[in-house]
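Researcher: I'd like a candidate sequence for this fold, 816 residues long. If you have to choose between options at a position, lean toward the conservative one.
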């Protein structure tokens, strides 16, 4: 947890690597993931860098991998999952050459098989269509001896028999296959070009046929067009070509068609055998490639990432050394040195690589080392804004305050147990569930420890509220004493009985709420006042803690004047107004009770809200005897002093810091910032040395107005703790009374079935509405309280994230 108090200290390092050892050294650094490299060639285009050829080779290998993977998806071949232990390292240059040759061989083989397969499949489709034409046109030529059909005979001009009587009976025809959806348009077009002198017959092919253009199944039909004349025949063939209709030779004689069908069947059998052998060979090649494809893909990605980083390096003047720069966490400097030494040893370089730490005025990146428990809370803070360098990290305190404020709104022991069980399942099965890549599930899985803590705190607040699915537990018994007789209890004229706090067995209940409040008619009134005051108390404490955290930033950045000029007026303004209101709540609880009479009796207890309003407006109110307006002597004078000091704090915040900067500039020349003081410094909202004084005054005026107004609005904003807690309890009670209780109104065996069905409905509504929807609502309100009300008091969030060169991150991003 000590690492989470503030971001880690960073160092800007300069790396000197021999060109022959550069690849291996960067590969070692990528495995460790602790260096964020800087691009020293920003002015050089991507096409003019030293390793652009190697990057293009990697792009070409990636293209081949994508092609092989696409072919596997076509054949529905699943890729084997590669565990983290089996993940290959980045290949050395010799292995990269072998990998490139293997990928090229696999791609060429697949492309050749695809081309041959497409040709064989087209031939097979044409043979099947020809077979359909030959078989389905048999009925069209049954009267061939009478009408003398011929699709290929030409008229002999020297034969007078053909010139005279034979010409009238001679018909030509064209047979083929066309898509059924195009046939009707095709028929109209033939009718128009022939002016009605074409006789068209069709016969639909049973089943679906594969479309050659799209590969989708479509309906097709066989057609035969009868006509006279060679000129009309050419027109018909042109129309067939325009409609993508396949025209096939079809003899009119029955014997010729039978011989042709036998020949087509033989060729179809041969094509089937060749297609099956080709499919088997393709499957063997793809299956063999599938075993290695995940490893190949990882190796190529690592290679490309290494050469991409090497393009960030600059060669020295002699060209015998590569120089690079990068940010490294101070704790990982030894790790980087070991990686460089290991890379030089692997490449057998004569000169070892070395590293220098250089001074800089640039703001370093922000890096907070987390584990699987703290990572979820850190992500919540980073979503608001990345912390400035070495700024106090709110995630450390959010590990406790976040689930606690959530539980104040979600306080129900039963619902808390549901959250704990769900989170415990995610935690116990986290190794198996981590492989799931579904987006919504990953949100819940990433916050499993947050949900677990929220459930535990909800169980605790459920005990405090004594609330289990809207019912109370009678663990310690009731502390109230019943001083009524049986006759008074059974009196029909008495609608209510009143229990006085003075008639109790013990003044303070051991833990949480007395269960008798579950039966009280003024239960909601009592819980309202209790939870409302509780939310204000937690809110003021939370905001005071946030303002106090700014002191830690001021001390770290050596801005001690800001403690007096900013922190002190801010905390005084907050404590003297709203801190005093919290004091009045506790004072009222302690002093006013049912054991005394007179001005300290419960009837004379003043309203805290009225007292606070009169304190600000300097008003007063009339009180009946023997009650008093104020709770103690001298309260009016103390309140007046508090208001005056709070008003003085406003110009103190407004003018203090700008005047201090003005005096400081006049007294001394501007100094250069230190390397680690380049950040603004938390809530200091630091001003540059060359910023005009007018802008500084305006800037400080904005922040003063914002703080004064937000102190009031943020305190009121914590009332959402009371509002959501009340709404959650009432919804839970409504579900119990309006749903589950209805199952107990039946007698006999029908009641058992009714309870079973009603319980199922009640469970679904409880989980869906009270746990999921209400839980999400409470989560969002808790997030807002931390982002706006708490973190705005000290957290600036003007930094940028540390993004090291790490193979693990690169591979995860590409998978997503």
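Model: Candidate sequence:
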């Amino acid at each position: 947890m000590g690492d989470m108090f503030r971001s880690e200290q960073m160092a800007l390092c300069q790396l000197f690597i021999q060109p022959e050892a550069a690849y291996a050294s960067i590969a070692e650094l990528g495995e460790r993931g602790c260096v964020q490299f800087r691009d020293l060639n920003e002015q050089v285009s991507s096409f003019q860098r030293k390793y652009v050829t190697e990057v293009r080779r990697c792009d070409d290998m990636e293209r081949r991998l994508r092609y092989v993977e696409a072919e596997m998806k076509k054949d529905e071949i699943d890729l084997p999952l590669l565990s983290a232990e089996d993940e290959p390292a980045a290949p050395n240059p010799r292995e990269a050459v072998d990998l490139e040759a293997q990928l090229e061989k696999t791609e060429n083989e697949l492309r050749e098989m695809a081309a041959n397969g497409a040709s064989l499949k087209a031939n097979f489709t044409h043979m099947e269509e020809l077979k359909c034409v030959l078989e389905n046109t048999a009925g069209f030529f049954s009267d061939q001896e009478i009408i003398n059909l011929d699709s290929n005979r030409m008229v002999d001009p020297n034969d007078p028999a053909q010139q005279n009587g034979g010409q009238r009976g001679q018909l030509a025809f064209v047979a083929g296959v066309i898509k059924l959806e195009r046939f009707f348009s095709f028929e109209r077009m033939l009718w128009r070009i022939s002016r009605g002198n074409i006789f068209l017959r069709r016969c639909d092919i049973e089943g679906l046929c594969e479309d050659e253009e799209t590969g989708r199944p479509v309906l097709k039909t066989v057609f035969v067009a009868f006509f006279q004349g060679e000129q009309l025949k050419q027109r018909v063939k042109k129309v067939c070509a325009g409609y993508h209709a396949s025209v096939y030779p079809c003899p009119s004689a029955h014997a010729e068609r039978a011989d042709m069908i036998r020949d087509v069947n033989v060729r179809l059998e041969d094509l089937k055998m060749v297609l099956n052998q080709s499919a088997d060979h393709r499957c063997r090649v793809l299956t063999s490639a599938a075993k290695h494809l995940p490893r190949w893909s990882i190796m190529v990605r690592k290679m490309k990432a290494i050469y991409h980083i090497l393009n960030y390096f600059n060669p020295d003047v002699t060209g015998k050394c590569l120089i690079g720069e990068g940010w490294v966490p101070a704790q990982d400097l030894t790790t980087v040195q070991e990686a460089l030494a290991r890379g030089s040893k692997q490449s057998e370089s004569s000169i070892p690589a070395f590293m220098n730490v250089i001074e800089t005025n640039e703001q370093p990146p922000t890096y907070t080392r987390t584990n699987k428990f703290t990572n979820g809370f850190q992500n919540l803070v980073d979503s608001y804004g990345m912390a400035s360098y070495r700024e106090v990290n709110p995630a450390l305190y959010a590990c406790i305050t976040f689930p606690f404020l959530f539980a104040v709104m979600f306080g129900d022991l039963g619902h808390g147990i549901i959250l704990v069980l769900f989170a415990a399942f995610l935690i116990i099965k986290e190794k198996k569930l981590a492989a799931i890549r579904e987006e919504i599930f990953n949100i819940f899985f990433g916050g499993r420890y947050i949900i677990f803590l929220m459930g535990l705190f909800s169980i605790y607040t459920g005990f405090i509220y004594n609330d289990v699915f809207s019912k109370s537990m009678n663990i310690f018994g009731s502390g109230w004493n019943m001083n009524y007789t049986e006759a008074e209890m059974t009196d029909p004229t008495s609608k209510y009985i009143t229990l006085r706090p003075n008639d109790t067995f013990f003044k303070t209940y051991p833990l949480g709420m007395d269960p008798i409040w579950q039966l009280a008619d003024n239960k909601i009134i009592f819980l309202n006042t209790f939870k409302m005051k509780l939310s204000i108390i937690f809110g003021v404490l939370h905001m005071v803690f946030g303002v106090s955290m700014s002191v830690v930033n001021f001390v770290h950045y050596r801005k001690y004047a800001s403690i007096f000029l900013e922190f002190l007026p801010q905390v005084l303004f907050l404590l003297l107004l709203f801190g005093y209101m919290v004091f009045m709540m506790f004072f009222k609880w302690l002093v006013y009770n049912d054991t005394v009479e007179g001005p300290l009796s419960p009837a004379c207890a003043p309203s805290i809200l009225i007292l606070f309003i009169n304190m600000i407006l300097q008003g007063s109110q009339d009180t009946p005897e023997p009650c008093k307006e104020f709770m103690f002597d001298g309260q009016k004078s103390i309140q007046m002093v508090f208001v005056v000091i709070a008003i003085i704090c406003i110009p103190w915040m407004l003018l203090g810091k700008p005047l201090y900067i003005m005096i400081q500039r006049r007294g001394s020349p501007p100094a250069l910032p230190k390397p680690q003081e380049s950040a603004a410094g938390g809530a200091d909202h630091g001003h540059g040395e060359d910023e005009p004084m007018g802008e500084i005054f305006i800037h400080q005026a904005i922040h003063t107005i914002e703080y004064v107004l937000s102190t009031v609005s943020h305190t009121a904003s914590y009332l959402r703790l009371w509002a959501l807690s009340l709404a959650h309890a009432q919804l839970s009670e409504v579900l119990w009374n309006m749903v589950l209780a209805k199952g107990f109104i039946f007698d006999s065996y029908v009641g058992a079935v009714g309870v079973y069905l009603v319980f199922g409905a009640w469970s679904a509504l409880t989980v869906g509405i009270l746990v999921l929807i209400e839980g999400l609502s409470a989560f969002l309100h808790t997030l807002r309280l931390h982002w706006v009300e708490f973190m705005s008091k000290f957290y600036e969030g003007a930094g940028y994230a540390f993004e090291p060169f790490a193979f693990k991150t690169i591979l995860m991003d590409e998978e997503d």
